[in-house]
Amino acid sequence: MLNARLSDIGSKPDAPFAAAQASNGEFLVAKTKDAFSLIGIAKGNDILPVAEAVYREGLRAKRGGFTASEYSRARSEYLSRLENQYKNRNSTPSTALVNGYVRNFIDNEPIPGIENEYQIMSMLANSIPVEALNMAMAELMPDSNVVVLTMLPDNGQFIIPTEAQIADVMKSVAAENSEPYVDEVKNEPLIPSLPAPGKIVSTADDKTFGGIVWTLSNGAKVVVKHTDFKDDEIMFGAVATGGTSVYGSEYDLNLRYLPVAFMTTGYGTYTSSDMEKYLAGKQAFVGIDLDDYDRTLTGGCTPKDLPTMMELVYMTFVGLNLDADEFAATQNRYAPIYRTREADPQFMFSKRLTEALYNSPRHYAVDANTIEKASRDTILNIAKEQLANAGEFTFYFVGNVDIETLKPLVEQYIASLPGKAVAPAEIKPVGLGLKSGSGTDIVTQKMDTPQTFAAIVVTGDLPYSSKNQKLASIAGQILSARLVKIVREDEGAVYSISASGGMSRIGDNCVVMQSAFPMKPEMRDKVLEIIAGQFEDMANNITAEELNKVKEYMVKDATEGLEKNSSWLSAMEGYQLRPVDTFTNAAADVSGVTEDDVKAFMKELNKQNNYRVFIMDPEAAK
User: Which runs of consecutive H residues, i.e. helices, occur in 214-304?
Assistant: First the structure.
């Protein structure tokens, strides 16, 4: 509840901190001691206003307690998440179970099991009044045993407070007469009025993935696949071809910032902060992603919260909003942080790497300049234009979804959206992605600990098929294993190194193999020579042993994927963009790959001569 208050403060443009958090657990420097902690991150170069603000909110909660409405939301959210774990208990991942045993062994943490925990905590949560929590909050912040710790760069740009100054701030805040917290909650409906429902005009079978396909009166299509993998999970997605490639270079900066802007999405008159309160106790979400050549929505919910998710889907198309104050608050929060990060060699490596690799600045890394100059109106207009015609989209529902329950919801919330049937937008790559050709870029960067950062990126354009998609991943994993053995273990040139390979359905140079890592500067030339040599060697030498290790892992992964809603949804959405099934027979496709297949793949990739190297060396000492 206190974190929700801090989040509300942080959503205002004049927030005194970039981020703040409250927690109760192990003390930072002593595992054997518990502590209630208030943490804040400065927006500027002065930490004292942050300490003042977070301490003030802690004392406000201690003295005035929490309101009944705050507690109701927090309790509903806690019980909703607990119920979700309970209903999905038969498909709990092994890692979650193992982590429970580890915590029990290390910290003597109880492991009652979700069946017992659900029953016990449901009973306790519903019987504990808000007054009891307020008494506990008062005990969490005693007047003694208070430690104030500040950590900030000693680079001459930040104000380093004295112990006396910190003590004065704490004393001053403690002497204030804290006003009780006022919980502001919107009561009006998220959707003021709904239009008349549309209709499902035809039904067909999805023969590839075993679903049902509805065509709606507004031209949209809906694909439904019922599964029993998880009792309490429905996954949602929507896909349309076409995308932001239609916008000229003058939109690059705002397209770069667009994913950050969508982190605080509102709907209609509801801000992002309002939506957090509206969704308390409801396990439902919808997100948006606008790429160069496609537009997608992603979401999920429990079966009982399906109506809420459908509201979010509807409002994404007709009521998407970015509150002006929240947009400015996000800019004010992140711009100073990213200014500071420009002194971090790892951040600068990522930033300068994208600038060297990509044709279009819209794919460069977000930096402080991007954040400060982003335009709310431009980004909102882009989103509304991209979502203007729901008839261009295919909507997917995968999981424990009841068909008869879904039908009227689809007709009310999707078929009623503005839209008309149109032919899918043709995908025409226009050179916004990774650069073609070979070359080496070398830059320098000031570093406290000298090391060389390197990236090798090899791209190619091969026919998209299930086999080639598997070969790209296999080749990347074989290369990764070789680099670990040779560069790390034999040469000792790096602390860690890996490589990856993949193939996308659409875009420029759809095959990408890459490796990025820091290393000893004196080993740079030798390591680069080794990696280049491995690309050449893999076109001629692949052993059965190294291939079989990768195939064994990928067959296991593919088999497990057949029982995951997320895997089915991803496969169905991908098929919509390019109708190639890489999923239903994935295990067999992997099993059929031979050493000669990998060698031929690497030979074709190397032949295209798209081998790019990016180096960031430490700046020479002056």
Answer: 252-261, 272-278
Q: Which tokens is 106 given?
A: 């290390």
pLDDT of residue 24: 93
Q: For the segment 328-383, what is each residue's pLDDT rounded down to a tens digit?
A: 999 999 998 898 888 899 999 999 999 999 999 999 999 999 999 999 999 999 99
CA 530 to chain centre: 34
> What are the counts of helices (DSSP H) followed by strands (DSSP E) for the chain?
21, 16
Show the tokens assigned to 197.
């429902």
Q: Which residue has the tokens 């005194």?
A: 16
**Residue-wise pLDDT tens digits, 66-103:** 999 999 999 999 999 999 999 999 888 889 899 999 98
In angstroms, how far is CA 350 from the centroid of its own chain?
18
- Supply the mean pLDDT for the chain: 95
Residue with structure tokens 């690497």? 602
What is the amino acid identity at position 290?
A: L
Taking the C-alpha atoms of residue 335 and residue 18, their distance in angstroms, rounded to an integer, is 9
Query: What confidence score (pLDDT) does residue 27 get?
Result: 87
Token pair 């999923």 is at which residue? Answer: 583
Q: Which residues pair with 54 in a beta bridge?
A: none
The full DSSP string for 162-201 is -HHHHHHHHHHHHHS-PPPP------S-SSS-PPPP--EE
Which token pair is 79? 């019980």
Q: Which residue matches tokens 């990347």?
A: 476
DSSP 15-75: -S-SEEEEEEEEETTEEEEEEEEEEEE-SSSBSHHHHHHHHHHHHHHHHH---HHHHHHHH
Q: What is the mean pLDDT of residues 525-541?
A: 97
Q: Is the dihedral of CA 112, 116, 118, 124 positive or negative?
A: negative
Are 37 and 28 in contact, with CB atoms under 8 Å apart?
A: yes
Cα–Cα distance measured from residue 443 to residue 373, given in angstroms and rounded to the nearest whole number = 26
Q: Contact at 8 Å (CB) between 253 and 374?
A: yes
Beta-strand pair 211-216/200-206:
antiparallel
Q: What is the pTM of this model?
A: 0.91
Crossing angle of the two packed helices 163-175 and 48-64, in degrees rounded to 10 = 30
**Sheet containing 294-301, strands listed edge to edge, beginning at the edge strand earlier in sequence:** 200-206, 211-216, 221-226, 394-399, 234-241, 294-301, 284-290
Going by C-alpha positions, the residue among 96, 9, 102 that lies closest to residue 54 is: 9
CA distance 284 to 181: 28
Structure-token match 């109760």, residue found = 24
Per residue in 151-196, pLDDT (tens digit) is 988 878 889 999 999 999 999 999 999 899 999 999 899 999 999 9
DSSP state for residue 486 in the 8-state scheme? I
Rounded to whole angstroms, how far apart are CA atoms 465 and 592? 14
| Dist CA 519 CA 500 (whole Å) | 18
- pLDDT tens column, 506-529: 988 899 999 999 999 999 999 999
d(Cα 151, Cα 168) in Å, to the nearest integer? 18
Q: How far apart are CA 394 and CA 222, in angstroms?
A: 6
Token representation of residue 480? 């990764």
> Does residue 211 sit in helix, strand or coil?
strand
Residue 622 has pLDDT above 70, yes or no: no
The count of C-alpha atoms lying within 13 angstroms of the C-alpha of 567, restricted to the half-sphere facing its C-beta, is 16
SS3 108: coil
The answer to whether residue 621 scores a pLDDT higher than 80 is no
Q: What pLDDT, on a 0 to 100 scale, did the predictor assign at position 178? A: 87
